[in-house]
Design a protein that fits this description.
Blueprint lengths: L1 H30 L12 E12 L2 E8 L3 E5 L5 E4 L16 E7 L9 E9 L8 E10 L5 E6 L4 E6 L14 E5 L9 E4 L2 E4 L2
Parallel strand pairs: 3-6, 4-6, 9-11
Antiparallel strand pairs: 1-2, 1-5, 2-3, 5-6, 7-8, 7-10, 8-9, 10-12
Protein name: DUF3221 domain-containing protein
Organism: Phascolarctobacterium faecium
Length: about 200
């Protein structure tokens, strides 16, 4: 009987500790709001694969991504970019069979394949040597002033850009379109990485 009482007391003690721990986490969260990032959203969509059709200003890409097949509408604002060095390309680069990553608006038609305005088409295989296109939603300078942290508009990646990587890093602003090259990324959300190269796009 005495043993049963002791076990009940132990369970009560453990439950009390668990409750205190949970309350403690709540207090920490409430006192550090600056470390809480908005939930990820779908702003810039992407499909990586190859061009299967070019019809006037419409380029259809088949592969992997937000949509396995997507038709990107190329406008005067759509950038055609070499994924290796970041150089801009002309319309002649849009050929069937080319390996690309198409970045496009989340405002899509309900047709098949869905159609959307293209932000950028990046040429080349999607690997570690390939630059990634993104929109900058938030810029946070570091405490020592030698770098900035860029949160993309999808809110799922934070890229740290140092002065050694991009000389005019302090001039990067919210709303900019950039190409960023990086390799290792944390498993956190948002994922965090250090840029090895950055280009601010026109």
């Amino acid at each position: 009987m005495r043993g049963v009482v002791i076990m009940k007391l132990q369970r009560t003690f453990i439950l009390t500790l668990v409750c205190l721990f949970i309350l403690g986490l709540g207090i920490v969260s409430a006192t550090e709001p600056e470390k809480i990032y908005p939930s990820p959203v779908r702003d810039v969509m992407a499909t990586t694969g190859e061009i299967i059709a070019v019809d006037g200003d419409k380029v259809t890409v088949k592969g992997d991504g937000n949509y396995p097949v997507a038709t990107v509408i190329v406008t005067d604002k759509t950038l055609l970019i070499d994924g290796k060095d970041g150089d801009l390309k002309g319309d002649r680069a849009l050929k069937k069979g080319r390996k690309v990553t198409a970045y496009y608006s989340s405002k899509m038609t309900r047709s098949y394949p869905p159609q959307a305005e293209g932000f950028a088409i990046v040429f080349g295989k999607n690997n570690e040597k390939q630059g990634k296109y993104m929109h900058v939603e938030k810029v946070t300078p570091s405490e020592n002033g030698e770098s900035v942290r860029l949160l993309n508009s999808n809110r799922d990646i934070i890229v740290t850009v140092s002065k050694d990587v991009y000389e005019d890093y302090q001039n990067i602003k919210e709303g900019d379109r950039i190409m960023a090259w990086y390799s290792i990324m944390t498993m956190s959300l948002p994922g965090q990485t250090n840029a090895t190269k950055v280009i601010v796009l026109p």
